[in-house]
Amino acid sequence: IWLLATMGNIPRPEFIGIAEKGGNIDVLVQALSGVLNSRSLDLLLVVFSNFAVASSFLGVTLGLFDYLADLFGFDDSAVGRLKTALLTFAPPVVGGLLFPNGFLYAIGYAGLAATIWAAIVPALLARASRKRFGSPKFRVWGGKPMIALILVFGVGNALVHILSSFNLLPVYQ
C-alpha cells in the first residue's frame, strides 16, 4: 500500500529532490502531501508514516536484541538485559541525535545485521546440522538448493547494502 501510494502519486522527477534532501520519511511525506490536497489524508499519512518508522525500528531492534545477547553471551538477568539494551539501542539513538539523516543510516546497518542473523546464520546452521546429524525425521522443503538460495540472497542483500553505503551503485538522477 505504501509503495502504491508513493510511487503512484508522486511524479517521477520529484524523487530526485527527495533523494537530494536525504530521502528521509519527512521529505517523502511532504512531497506526497503536496499532491494529495486533503487535510484528512495528510493527517492519515503523517500517522501512518510515524507508525511505519516506529514499527521498523522496533522490529529490527527486537531481533537485534536477541542476536546481540546470544553473540556476546549476556545472560537473562537484569544486568545482562541492560547491557544488551544499551548495545542495541544506544548506537541508533546516538546516530539519530548526532546526524539529521541518522535514522536512515542506523536502520540500514541494523538491517545489515538482520540479514546476517535472519538469513546467513540460519542457513549456515541448517547446512552444518545436516552434515553433522544426517537426515532428521522432519526436514524443511528445498534441501541443499534452498539453503544455497538463502545464502545467495543474504550475501547479495549485504553486498548491495555495503555497495550502496559507498555510493558504488547507480542512482536515479
Would you write up a description of this structure?
One of its GO terms (biological process) is amino acid transmembrane transport. This is Tryptophan permease. One of its GO terms (cellular component) is plasma membrane. The protein is globular. It has 173 residues and is mainly α. The protein has one domain (38-165). Helix 4 packs across helix 6. The longest helix has 34 residues, at 39-72. The protein is built from seven helices and no strands. The two termini are 25 Å apart. 79% of the residues lie in helices and 0% in strands.
The whole-number mean of residue pLDDT values reads: 85
SSE order: HHHHHHH
Q: Count structural domains.
A: 1
Number of β-strand runs: 0
What percent of residues adopt helix (DSSP H or I)? Answer: over 70%
Major sheet details: none
Indicate the structural class. Answer: mainly alpha
Overall shape: it is globular
Strand content: under 5%
Straight-line N-to-C gap: 25 Å
Please render the helix and strand layout as text.
Layout: H1 2-9, H2 14-20, H3 25-36, H4 39-72, H5 78-98, H6 102-133, H7 143-165
Entry summary:
With 173 residues, the protein is mostly helical. It is built from seven helices and no strands. The longest helix is centred in the N-terminal third of the chain and has 34 residues, at 39-72.
